[in-house]
Fold this protein.
Amino acid sequence: MFFSIYTLGCKVNQIESEAIAAAFRDAGFTALPWGAPLDGTNAPILVINTCTVTSKAEQKARRLIRNALRLPCAALIVSGCYAELDVHNIAELATEEPDLAPLFVLGGGGKDTLLDLPGFLAAKVKDAPLTTLVSQWLNRTLVSDTSKPPPPTLVSGTNDAAFRFNMADFSFHSRASLKIQDGCDHRCSYCRVCLARGKSVSIEPQKALTSLRLLEEKGYAEATLTGINIGQYRSCGFDLGALIAYLLAETQAIRLRLSSLEPDSLSEGFIKALASPRIRPHFHLSVQSGSPIILQRMARPYQVQAIKHGIALLRSVKTDPFLACDIITGFPGETDMAFEETWSLCRRVGFAWIHAFPYSPRPGTMAYSFTGHVSERTAGARVERLLTLAREGRRAYTSRWLGKTVEAIVETHEDPRMASAVSENYLKLRIPRNTETPLKPGTLIHCRLSGQPESESKDNTNFDALAQAL
Ligand code: SF4
């Protein structure tokens, strides 16, 4: 039996796909790389884990679904945030022509059922074809009967369901992640994620510790604490700062990296918890704009002063941490002057990277009906200006670390002469292989930054510095 999974979107989606893949492998299924040639004999179960952050992400999902529907697979299962919000639109793709593959769209918080599906299929495979079994499991009729709305899906979106994805077997990533929070209580005017994932829920501290200890026992040197808005972590009287202190106190050596942080969560108390050397000096802030008016129109829960204050606090607790941010350009009402406020803030802060992307109008959000439309061309030009700043910032940041020694985790890299690694402060490194220091993926090493590549890479997928393993 075979399966293949394609994941779009954020770290939370990535970790959920890792868990679904692990469930299939544990049930005896063989993983096929997405797009591997298929013939009738190995008809796999295909899973697409979708994202709804931008219309581009949804368009990509629709393209993937259309292509997959024309493949000889036993079943195509579509889950994720786009499926949560648009079951019907997706279901209709299977009616575009006859004899397409059977499509199952998993909305309404049912993603965690995919953790149990492989076991069910493996147990019943002698009784019926996989397609029938998938249908039985998902308790619904094949999607070709789109006249009837799909039955309400199975699961609850409860705490337990949201955190069943934590496991200790990563097949697509060398560094581990631990999901500690899901959903969001904010309602930013442009966001559909909060609509797809619902209210904020948090894992209990003890359960987070159990999962982290498992990762440490499995030899993972680092784990990223992940969620949709981890700053909203609340459980058993613990907030995020308290959870971090507890996890560090109750484990030996595993390092912790944090996924995106909202500026409103950068309180003095929280910052104190970051002082530990086991907390990676790398912070990604969801800033979105540097213009007071645009932050207000976005209904962001903070203002420019909070961004500056939070950054000063982060720089007070770590030596020259790698600071990155998200910025949306072309939000309705973003004048040239408003954009200049954003650009100047980014330049003054000196971010080591800026993840800039154009505003994407999302149906069902408040901003969808806002006036003050900004053309794609203008929004795109503003993204380019920020990326130029980002490249300069990254190069300047890396040059400050040349000659210095850092910790790094070796990543999978085919090149027999060079290994790749990610440093504690999130620099992408290339390290010449030598016989003395084995550079196995996942290994924690110490290395000294020795040089930068000649030219700036057009995007940040290339590498930041050469390093020597010590
Ligand atoms: S903080 Fe805002 S943008 Fe982020 S998930 Fe919550 S509502 Fe969406």
